[in-house]
Structures are given as C-alpha cells and as structure tokens.
C-alpha cells in the first residue's frame, strides 16, 4: 500500500474489459498499489466510487445499471475532486458531446495499461517510486492530468507546441504530404521525450485531439524546484526547444532521399511555435477555468513567438542580402549538343577541364553560392532560428527567402552579382530572374551593365498571369539585345500554354524530364513533342542536369540543341574557367554562340 501525506491511496477499477483489467491488476500488484475491483453491473458501483478511501477512479464509459448521461454527469462531478479516467472514445454524438461533464473527464481511448499508468502517474496518484510507466505514443489531452497536477502542486507550468502552420503544406503539396509531415513531427516529439535538453521524462506530453496540430507539455513540478518559474525562464526553455526541433527537422531535410522520413518536396522549415504559461491554484476559482485560461495564454504566447521567429528569419536573410559579401557567383558552361561526340566527353573527363570542348561552347549560366564560414561567423550566435551552415544549399536559401518575403531582394542581388562577375565570359550569359522582377526590368537596368548578351531565365517557382505585361517586357528585352528563356520546364508552374504566351527564345528542360530518359519511352515521346513545338516557334531547347553520355546521346538524337550538366562541367569560379579557356587557346569565343 502506498502512502502519501499520510493518506492511504486506493484506485477503484470499474471495467468489464477483462484483458485490460488483468493487465492493470498485475501492474498494481507488482507495485504494491492498493486497488479495488468493482463489477460495472454491481449494485455497489456508486458506494465504491464515493468511498472516502478512493483517490482515483478508472471506469468504463457506461454501465448496465445507470443511464449513460446520468453516469457521465456523476463522473464529471466526481472528477472535480479526484482523478477520473474513462475507458472509451469521447463520443461525438449529441448524447455525450452536449454534456459539459464529458469535457472534464479523462478519456483514454487506446486501452493500453501503460498509458493508463502514465496518466495516473501524471495526476499524482502514484508516488516517485513508481514513475516508470511511459505510454507507447503521445496520448490525447486529458483534463484530469493538469487538473490534479495544479491541485496537488499549487501551481502548474506548461508549453504549447503549435504546428497549425502545417496546413499550408496541405494546400501546396496535398493532404498526403501534410499527413506524412504531421506523423513525422509527432514521432519526433515522442523521440525527444526524455532526451537531454528536451522534454524531461516526467513532463507530460499530450495532443489536443486525435487530428490536432497542437501539443501540450505539462511540466513536472521538480523542474522548477516547487517554485513558480523566474521571469524569462520558460521563455528560454521554449526558445531552446524551438531551436532543437528546428535542428532535428533540418537534419531530416538534408538526409539522402532514401533515408528521409518526410516527403522530399519539403525543403524549408514548416511553421511551428512554442508558447508557455504558468497558473496558480486558487480554491476560490473553478480549477477547470484556470486550466483553460492557462492553455489560452500559452497558445497566445506561441503566436507571439511565431512572429518573433518570422521576424528573425527575415533579419537573417536581410543580413545576407545587404552584406553583399556572403554570396558570390559561380558559372556553369552550356554546350552545343549537335556538335558533341563521345570522344570529346571522354577528353573532358580525362583533362578535368572544358578545354577539349571549347569549340562547342555556347555560353554560361550564373549560379549563386555562399561563403559558409562568413555566414556562420555572422549568424551562428542566434538563439531563436537554427541554420546548419555546412549543409545549407542555394535552393533552400531561396525557399527561405520566399517564406520570409524577401525573395525579390535576394533575386536582385544574385542577378547583379552574376552579371558583374561575368564580364569576361564568352557567349550568352543565362541569369535566373523571378517574374515579378522581370516585370520591372527597366528599373533594374543598373544591374545589367556592363554585361550584354543576357538570357533571362524566368523561374518556374511562381506564376504570372498578365500576357499584356509580358509583351511589354519582351519588347524591352529585345530592345537591349537580350533573350528570354523558360526555365525548369516540366515542374512547378511550367506548361505548354505558359510557354506559348511567353514565346521564349530558349526552353530549358528540367532535370526530371531527362533523368534516365534512355530507358523511359514516355519521357522520350514527351521531349520529342516539346522539341517539335519549339521548332515551330523558333525556340531552342536546352536539356539541363545531364549527367551521363546515355542521357546526352538520347536527347541529341531527339533533336535537343543544347546541354548543361555535370557530364561536362560543374559550376566553377570565373578565374578557373578563364584558365581553362586560355589553355584551349580560345581568346574570343563570342562568335561560337
């Protein structure tokens, strides 16, 4: 028999579930926990529940002797003075959901003995000698836990983890991707439970409802040495856990595709935030109202933290953009595929240089890179937003910029850096540009000098829907002797209709269309159609991301004009490229284009 504060503890078990009853009684006996079994059909049910020795109740959601609504009312009344856990699903039928008492009860749906023991433990029914029961997963919110924690301790602190921002994933990528992310996040929180620097073993984590994106963490009283947390302590805890969760999600994003537990299309941190609050027990107030206010306050703080995180992300991107030192351009060569042979490819591999294919050089594309050491030096001290500078990629940087609403500014910086650094490169220079920046190209003319012969690759990361404005832009681009290219055709907003309206001089096929094309007939047929359509509108076709000669020879046979990819050239600095061209003896290759 357990003793606490001189009171003999006794659990009253009223269930017809023989399997669960046997599992629980075995645990009770092993832990020398005093309990009483009562048959739900017995006339002694009410007498047993209201016995002064009973300190916790585990009951079925109905009995054969008492009408269900009356049973729920009685249990709700009892739950205000001792923990009452109801075995069964909180019904959504009007018979129960309209009953205010039902909301107060601790509903346990999974019927796991370990979960029930952990709920008893959290409600203070078990003493420290029996704090060894951990549920198999995150349980659903149970009002009985915070209710009796605050009554037993005189105060209660909690965290709210708000992941309602995940709904954006559903809109952008579909419900299946959203569901996988939600499942991963819940597994991640469960894995953190008990880890050093995370939630303590005896902090109680709960999900607000079965389909909710909100989690509650009720903090063990020993965490704060039985005192109310000092001002700012909980905020530091919330921020530290925010960083840890960010770190774990980033680690998942950067894993190899076959090892990821989240969909590959997620390449930025989904929105989430942590709030915190503390409440004191007040015998003059309804304890349920106190708990509800505690949760509301923590939820409001979580919303405030979300704004702080967004502002901090924007500040980080603004620092990167304004410094103009962190980012720099590399350049990748583009080649005339029609004149390329397998011998030349082999020569490139042997020489580790583009010198052997200088005679089939078409031009270059500007690709942004960043100095990771400088980035880490400027931003590593941040305590609210985690970034793994060693793994950060340009595509993720741009996705973060779009999320922080500074993508136009980042795009302008990259445009200016790419053009300014390529003055000495021969042939056309391809530069990426967002449609919204393209619409204001005249205002960005200062970024285009002193380089001429530019090809503006219109990014497919966002759409445009103003054909008349596109006509004006095309006229201006032609006026300054430049061209327009449809970039990443085959993904995003790309479509034949969009290309027809754009009337580009160049169509760039996305890597997804040419990867292993030699063994996929459907891709061949699709690309053949694109090539025929391009010829009808006098546009060239470029296959990007070519990595093997089999891919190159296949698109060559189809009639693709240009190629770009690791097969011939990885992005390099201007200095290295000029050394290779000099070695080829080509001083002026502008006419090659």
Can you walk through the features of this model?
The chain has 593 residues and is α/β, with parallel strands linked by helices. It has three domains: 1-136, Response regulator (Rossmann fold, 3-Layer(aba) Sandwich), CATH 3.40.50.2300; 137-304, Alpha-Beta Plaits (2-Layer Sandwich); 330-368 and 408-586, TIM Barrel (Alpha-Beta Barrel), CATH 3.20.20.450. It is 42% helix and 17% strand. The protein contains 22 helices and 19 strands. Strands 12-13-14-15-16-17-18-19 form an eight-stranded mixed beta barrel. α14 packs antiparallel against α15 (407-420). The longest helix is centred in the middle third of the chain and has 37 residues, at 287-323. The chain is elongated, with a radius of gyration of 32 Å. The relative contact order is 0.07. Residues 1-7 and 587-593 have low confidence and may be disordered.
Offer a quick outline of the entry.
The protein is of the alpha/beta class. Helix content is 42%, strand content 17%. The chain folds into three domains: 1-136, Rossmann fold, CATH 3.40.50; 137-304, Alpha-Beta Plaits (2-Layer Sandwich), CATH 3.30.70; 330-368 and 408-586, TIM Barrel.
CATH class of the largest domain: Alpha Beta
Strand content: 15-25%
CATH architecture of the largest domain: Alpha-Beta Barrel
Point out poorly predicted stretches: 1-7, 587-593
Write the SSE topology:
Elements: E1 3-4, E2 7-8, E3 11-14, H1 18-30, E4 35-38, H2 45-49, E5 56-60, H3 68-78, E6 84-87, H4 94-97, H5 100-104, E7 106-108, H6 113-122, H7 144-153, E8 155-162, H8 167-173, H9 175-192, E9 204-207, E10 214-218, H10 233-253, E11 273-280, H11 287-323, E12 327-336, H12 342-351, E13 361-370, H13 372-379, H14 394-403, H15 407-420, E14 429-433, H16 435-438, E15 454-458, H17 467-479, E16 483-489, H18 496-502, E17 506-509, H19 511-514, H20 521-536, E18 540-544, H21 549-558, E19 562-564, H22 574-583
Parallel strand pairs: 3-4, 3-5, 5-6, 6-7, 13-14, 14-15, 15-16, 16-17, 17-18, 18-19
Antiparallel strand pairs: 1-2, 8-10, 8-11, 9-10, 12-13, 12-19
Helix pairs in contact: 8-9, 14-15
């Amino acid at each position: 028999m357990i003793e606490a504060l001189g009171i003999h503890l006794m659990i009253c078990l009223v269930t017809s579930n023989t399997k669960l009853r046997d599992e629980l009684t075995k645990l009770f006996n092993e832990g020398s926990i005093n309990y009483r079994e009562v048959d739900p059909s017995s006339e002694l049910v009410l007498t047993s529940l209201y016995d002064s020795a009973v300190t916790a109740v585990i009951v079925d959601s109905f009995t054969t002797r008492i009408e269900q609504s009356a049973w729920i009312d009685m249990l709700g009344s009892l739950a205000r003075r001792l923990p009452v856990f109801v075995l069964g699903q909180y019904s959504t039928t009007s018979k129960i959901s309209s009953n205010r008492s039902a909301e107060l009860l601790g509903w346990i749906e999974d019927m796991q003995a370990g979960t029930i023991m952990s709920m008893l433990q959290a409600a203070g029914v078990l003493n420290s000698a029996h704090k060894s029961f951990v549920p198999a997963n995150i349980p659903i919110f149970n009002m009985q836990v915070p209710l009796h924690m605050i009554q037993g301790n005189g105060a209660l602190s909690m965290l709210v983890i708000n992941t309602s921002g995940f709904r954006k994933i559903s809109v952008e990528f579909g419900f299946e991707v959203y569901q996988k992310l939600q499942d991963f996040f819940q597994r991640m929180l469960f894995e953190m439970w008990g880890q050093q620097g995370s939630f303590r073993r005896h902090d109680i984590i709960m999900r607000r409802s079965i389909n909710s994106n909100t989690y509650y963490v009720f903090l063990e009283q020993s965490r704060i040495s039985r005192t109310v947390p000092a001002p700012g302590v909980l905020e530091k805890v919330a921020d530290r856990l925010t960083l840890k969760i960010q770190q774990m999600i980033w680690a998942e994003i950067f894993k190899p595709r076959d090892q990821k537990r989240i969909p590959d299309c997620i390449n930025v941190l989904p929105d989430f935030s942590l709030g915190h609050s503390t409440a004191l027990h007040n015998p003059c107030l309804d304890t349920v109202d106190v708990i509800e206010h505690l949760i509301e306050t923590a939820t409001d703080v979580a919303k405030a933290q979300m704004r702080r995180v967004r502002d901090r992300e924007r500040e980080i991107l603004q620092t990167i953009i304004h410094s103009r030192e962190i980012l720099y351009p590399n350049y990748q060569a583009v080649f005339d595929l029609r004149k390329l042979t397998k011998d030349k490819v082999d020569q490139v591999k042997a020489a580790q240089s583009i010198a052997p294919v200088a005679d089939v050089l078409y031009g270059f594309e500007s690709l942004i890179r960043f100095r990771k050491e400088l980035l880490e030096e400027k931003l590593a001290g941040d305590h609210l937003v985690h970034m793994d500078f060693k793994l950060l990629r340009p595509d993720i940087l741009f996705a973060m910029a779009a999320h922080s609403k500074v993508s136009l500014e980042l795009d302008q910086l990259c445009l200016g850096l790419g053009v300014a650094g390529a003055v000495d490169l021969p042939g056309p220079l391809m530069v990426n540009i967002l449609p919204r920046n393209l619409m204001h190209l005249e205002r960005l003319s200062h970024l285009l000098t002193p380089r001429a012969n530019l090809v503006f690759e219109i990014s497919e990361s966002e759409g445009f829907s103003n054909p008349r404005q596109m006509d004006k832009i095309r006229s201006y681009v032609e006026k300054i002797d430049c061209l327009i290219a449809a970039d990443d055709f085959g993904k995003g907003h790309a479509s034949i209709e969009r290309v027809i309206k754009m009337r580009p001089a160049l169509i760039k096929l996305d890597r997804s269309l040419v990867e292993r094309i030699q063994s996929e007939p459907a891709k061949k047929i699709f690309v053949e159609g694109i090539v025929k359509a391009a010829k009808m509108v006098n546009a060239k076709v470029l296959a990007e991301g070519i990595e093997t000669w089999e891919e190159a020879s296949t698109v060559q046979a189809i009639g693709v004009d240009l190629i770009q990819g690791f097969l011939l050239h990885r992005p390099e600095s201007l200095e290295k490229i000029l050394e290779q061209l000099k070695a080829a003896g080509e001083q002026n290759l502008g006419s090659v284009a």
